[in-house]
């Protein structure tokens, strides 16, 4: 490389573009740019390429596929948009461009930023907390609808209410729903309706539109008035994708006016079915209660019949008549019979007196003593008679008493008796044998 080239620090195009890219990205990390779309293209890759321009300049922009798919609108040439991105340089071609990460319509974008800032502020104060929201009445008695009397929203609300619950009184409270001064008039009507005490629920509604059309319902004073209202407030502003500060501050948010009307009142058919069910339950309860009361009345009547004074008097009269008859019979009995009965009782008493029993025992003791004294002589006499009987029996079987043998009386002393002399001991053996045998007939 020549000396001249070294002094001049010659760069290649890629080096120059890289330096320029680093300089741009370092100096502008993220910028917001508002302008008009031109030369919009979206090739098959899904990326979006266009130019943002104003009256005096333009800048190329690139919106890659993930960000392009999240857009809530379709970009087109001539549309005024607000873009957020970082400045860079496409080195291959040396194109200066803005790589976007967010794109929105320009007029709505400013309003959207203001909406988000106000929403964050009120949410930080607790204005949207769920614990401060009130429960709506199950059966409203009077409904106030704050809306435009000429819009489609009020017709949808009245149509649904007439079909579902035609008995509900509804007052349409007319207010402008967009334009200058609409927010202040809505706020004034809300305060008057809540203070009059006529309504037990209020519906704040309007049809769909752009964020600018719905901006009256994003007023900070209106949101605070809705949160402070003594009457529950239902908000149904715009379509399902639309949200407003009144929706967040209200006690209930409905996606559409028709949906709000359906949430406010019960359906007539369902209500009639519930009423018929409750009527059947009430009739069953009444029938059971009446049956139970009839049974208690019957039991009380039977008890009253059993305890009625007339029956008790009749029973007492019967007992009195029986006692009177017993008294008459007692008075009619002769005095003699009573005296005889008394004498018998006295005799029985005397016979059972302990003195008489002692006398009887003493007499019996004397008899027993006499029998005891007489028992030994009598027993001795009986034994004597038994011995005499045994002696006679012995003599009857003695050999001396056999026929042909003359018994002699013992001879006198010195006189010898004739005849054979008995063998010594024979009489004793005979007597002993006689004694061992029991006589046939006992002696007297």
Question: Could you explain the architecture of this structure?
Answer:
The chain has 444 residues and is an alpha/beta fold. Among the domains are: 11-112, Nucleic acid-binding proteins (OB fold (Dihydrolipoamide Acetyltransferase, E2P)), CATH 2.40.50; 134-266, Rossmann fold, CATH 3.40.50.261; 282-318. Helix content is 52%, strand content 15%. The protein has helices at 3-8, 13-27, 65-69, 106-124, 152-164, 182-195, 220-228, 245-249, 257-264, 268-307, 309-332, 335-351, 354-396, 426-436; strands at 31-41, 48-53, 58-63, 80-90, 95-105, 143-147, 170-174, 201-206, 233-237, 252-253. The strands form two sheets. The protein has a five-stranded mixed β-barrel with strand order 1-2-3-5-4. A hairpin with a 4-residue loop joins β4 (80-90) and β5 (95-105). α6 (182-195) runs parallel beside α7 (220-228) and α13 (354-396) crosses α14. The chain starts with a helix and ends in an 8-residue tail after the last helix. The relative contact order is 0.05. Residues 409-444 have low confidence and may be disordered.
């Amino acid at each position: 490389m020549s000396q001249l080239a070294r002094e001049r620090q010659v760069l290649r195009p890629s080096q120059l573009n890289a330096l320029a890219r680093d300089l741009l990205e370092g100096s502008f990390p993220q910028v917001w740019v508002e302008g008009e779309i031109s030369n919009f293209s979206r090739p098959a890759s899904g990326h979006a390429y266009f130019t943002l321009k104003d009256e005096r300049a333009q800048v190329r922009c690139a919106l890659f596929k993930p960000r392009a798919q999240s857009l809530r609108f379709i970009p087109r040439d001539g549309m005024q948009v607000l873009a957020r991105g970082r400045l860079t340089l496409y080195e291959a071609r040396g194109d200066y461009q803005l790589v976007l990460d967010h794109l929105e319509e320009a007029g709505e974008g400013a309003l959207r930023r203001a909406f988000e800032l106000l929403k964050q502020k009120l949410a930080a104060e607790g204005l949207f907390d769920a614990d401060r929201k009130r429960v709506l009445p199950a059966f409203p008695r009077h409904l106030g609808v704050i809306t435009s009397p000429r819009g489609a929203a009020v017709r949808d609300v009245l149509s649904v209410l007439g079909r579902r619950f035609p008995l509900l009184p509804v007052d349409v409270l007319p207010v402008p729903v967009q334009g200058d001064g609409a927010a202040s008039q809505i706020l004034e009507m809300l305060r008057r309706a809540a203070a009059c005490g006529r309504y037990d629920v209020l519906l704040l509604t309007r049809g769909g539109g752009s964020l600018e059309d719905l901006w009256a319902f994003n007023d900070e004073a209106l949101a605070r008035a809705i949160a402070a209202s003594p009457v529950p407030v239902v908000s149904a502003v715009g379509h399902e994708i639309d949200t407003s500060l009144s929706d967040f501050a209200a006690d209930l948010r409905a996606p559409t006016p028709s949906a709000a009307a359906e949430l406010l009142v019960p359906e007539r058919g369902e209500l009639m079915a519930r009423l018929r069910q409750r009527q059947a339950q009430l009739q069953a309860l009444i029938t059971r209660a009446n049956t139970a009361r009839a049974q208690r009345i019957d039991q009380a009547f039977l008890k009253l019949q059993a305890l009625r004074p007339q029956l008790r008097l009749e029973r007492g009269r019967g007992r009195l008549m029986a006692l009177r008859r017993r008294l008459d019979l007692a008075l009619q009995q002769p005095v003699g019979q009573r005296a005889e009965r008394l004498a018998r009782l006295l005799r029985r008493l005397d016979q059972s007196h302990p003195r008489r029993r002692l006398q009887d025992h003493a007499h019996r003791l004397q008899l027993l003593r006499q029998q005891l004294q007489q028992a030994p002589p009598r027993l001795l006499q009986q034994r004597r008679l038994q011995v005499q009987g045994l002696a006679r029996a012995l003599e009857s079987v003695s050999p001396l008493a056999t026929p042909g043998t003359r018994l002699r009386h013992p001879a006198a002393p010195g006189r010898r008796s004739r005849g054979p002399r008995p063998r010594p001991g024979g009489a004793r053996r005979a007597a002993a044998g006689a004694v061992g045998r029991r006589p046939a007939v006992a002696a007297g």
